[in-house]
Amino acid sequence: MEGLYSSADRLMVDFNTISGINCSTVDLSVPNSTGTFYTTGFCSACSRLQKDTLRNLKCENINIYSCLQSERWGGKYECLCPAGLAFINTTISKGDDEKLGISAGPFIMTELSEVNEDLKGMFGDKMDVELLVEAKKLPVIECSKVSTYADVLFMLSSYMVERNSIEMRILEQLAQNESEQFYQIADIKNSKAENYNYPIESEKMLQNYIAQGDKTASQKVLNEILGHIFFCSGGNFNVIKARTTELIVLLSRAAIAGGADVIEVFGMNYDYLNDIHNCRTLDELNKWLSNVLIRFTSAVFDVRTMKHSDIIMKIIDYVRHNYMRKITLNDISNHVNFSVSYISRIFKDEMGSNMMQYINKVRVDNAKLLLLNNEIPLIEVAYLCGFEDQTYFNKVFKKNTNISPGKFRDKRGQI
Q1: Report field, pTM of the whole predicted structure over 0.85
Q2: Cα angle value 355/357/358 (rounded, 5°)
Q3: Which one, of 330, 267, 23, lies nearest residue 149 by Cα?
Q4: Considering only CA atoms, which of 404, 374, 387 is closest in space to residue 324?
Q5: How far apart are the C-alpha atoms of 14 and 168, rounded to whole Å?
Q6: Element counts in the chain: helices (H) and strands (E)
Q7: Which residues pair with 94 in a beta bridge?
Q8: Which helix (H) or strand (E) holds 351?
Q9: What does the alpha-carbon distance between residue 152 and residue 150 come to, in Å, rounded to a whole number?
Q10: Angle at CA 202, nearest 5°, toward 197 and 205?
């Protein structure tokens, strides 16, 4: 629960800064949790007075109950305590076994005079002056703002849960990266060292995957390249950082080719080329470079921000999985269940090119990778990428790259 309590502490500090309302937590992972948790001097004074005069706690378990109710009511639940003061409740969890309730309050939603009347009605002539003094210290929140603060608390709790998940995924990814790089180095050592060549083709693959915004494939190829860099450096960390700096330039160019904003990429480049000097170990460098890769692939033109993102993403996904065979607009229309005229119009409006132009771009991008392999004949490359004849392949390839497939191969993609 340590990590969950740490997240809850950050959440409560942030919410208090925004709203001025104190928060507290309770462990909800314990079956049949009982008790009352106090957030202010008012709650402590009220609890003491209840025990002295009423011989019990009218508010016992009310916040625990309200936190659990928040799960049933969209992640947030507002309630009043027996003294008429308000609370906002939510939960954060990690898996099925760790769950914390978070209660923000108490705060006043009415005039202080009305609160005083409620307290007098509850305690009668046993009213304690200390309780009235503590009530004056509580924040007063307009009724119209309570729902907004409830939304803010819920959004913060959701963010903290996702942040925990992201941090765990980063740790898992780093472990996977190190494992892949270890085996890559082992493979290099087991091969004949005198015949060793740096895998320039892998850099081309990495550029292509970044341009497509494919984070998973990009990371896999990056791990391969890093394995080679770590092996070739002989353990010299300065050499590794120098080669990594070269990779940053390669990553940025690929992101721009994929549609990323040039100014944004140049700004990231400037920051990254300064940040790399702060890395002192391979672990730091590895983690930092993985984050850089995510930023560059995320900067690539993202269809999820588009008005018709669902349809566009379905079209893109269909093309990427079927580019190697003949695709007609009717095929795409049937796949997304909209008319050809409709999808043609929205695709053109959102993407800036028609669907056939996009299909050919995907085919050309994949042809670039195949052309790096001299063992595959040009006519076979055309066929594998969905072109029906080599003449049309040559025409489309040159239109997209300003160079013929043959010259692209001769130059090893250096265009």
Answers
A1: no
A2: 65
A3: 23
A4: 387
A5: 22
A6: 18, 4
A7: 98
A8: helix 340-351
A9: 5
A10: 160
- Return the H-helix or E-strand segment holding 78: strand 77-80
Per-residue pLDDT, averaged over 169-181, amounts to: 53
352/346 Cα distance (integer angstroms)? 10
Nearest to 111 by CA among 79, 148, 85: 85
Token code pair at residue 61? 């378990």
- Residue pLDDT, tens place only, 122-171: 888 888 888 889 999 999 998 888 988 998 998 888 877 766 655 555 44
Radius of gyration of the CA atoms of the chain, in A:
31
Cβ neighbours, 10 Å, residue 42: 25
Residues in contact with 412: Cβ distance below 8 Å, sequence separation at least 6, in sequence order: 200, 372
Q: Which of 117, 44, 34 is nearest to 83 (CA)?
A: 117
Largest CA distance in the chain: 99
